[in-house]
Specification:
Order of helices and strands: HH
Number of helices: 2
Radius of gyration: 35 Å
Structural class: mainly alpha
Distance between the termini: 11 Å
Number of strands: 0
Strand content: under 5%
Largest sheet: none
Helix content: over 70%
């Protein structure tokens, strides 16, 4: 009868230890999987940042064409009315249009740069989060390994006291 009790205690300890050990392994496997998801999110954010810069180049090209058309229309309008455009108000209007267009170009590029930087930061943060999760899982796995050893030692102590 005593052997059966000792066997049950040892068996229970081994099962408990095995469960703890497997919990640690599972935590690590889950963290590694989650890290692949974080890495994928980082790649997507970097691709979005590149797309933002490609789009702003296109948008600025279209914007410059529009400004050139406006400047041409203004020049043509003055010329059709016989206004001398090389001095006075007409040249000031053209210069003001040019300056405003340059300011708008700067703002468009600045906004795209900010959006791209935010996306790159998001990518970095996602990668860091994946690395941190894997590191935490390693600590969890180690803790579960110690827990398993403790369960085995506790079971052995109980078995010896019977």
């Amino acid at each position: 009868m005593e052997a059966a009790i000792i066997g049950a205690i040892v068996g229970s300890s081994v099962m408990g230890a095995s469960a703890s050990y497997n919990e640690g392994k599972q935590a690590e496997a889950t963290a590694k999987y989650n890290k692949t998801l974080f890495d994928r999110d980082a790649v997507l954010a970097e691709q979005q940042a590149a797309t933002v810069q490609e789009k702003v180049r296109y948008d600025l090209s279209k914007f410059r064409q529009q400004i050139a058309t406006i400047q041409s229309d203004v020049t043509q309008g003055y010329a059709m009315r016989g206004v001398q455009i090389s001095e006075g108000t007409p040249i000031k209007v053209l210069e003001k249009n040019f300056k405003d267009a340059k300011d708008d170009e700067y703002i468009i590029q600045y906004n795209a740069d900010v959006e791209s930087a935010n996306l790159r930061n998001q990518a970095d943060q996602s990668r860091y989060q994946g690395v941190a999760e894997v590191q935490m899982a390693k600590y969890t796995k180690l803790g579960k390994k110690y827990e398993a050893f403790g369960t085995l030692l506790g079971g052995a102590a109980k078995a010896m006291s019977v």
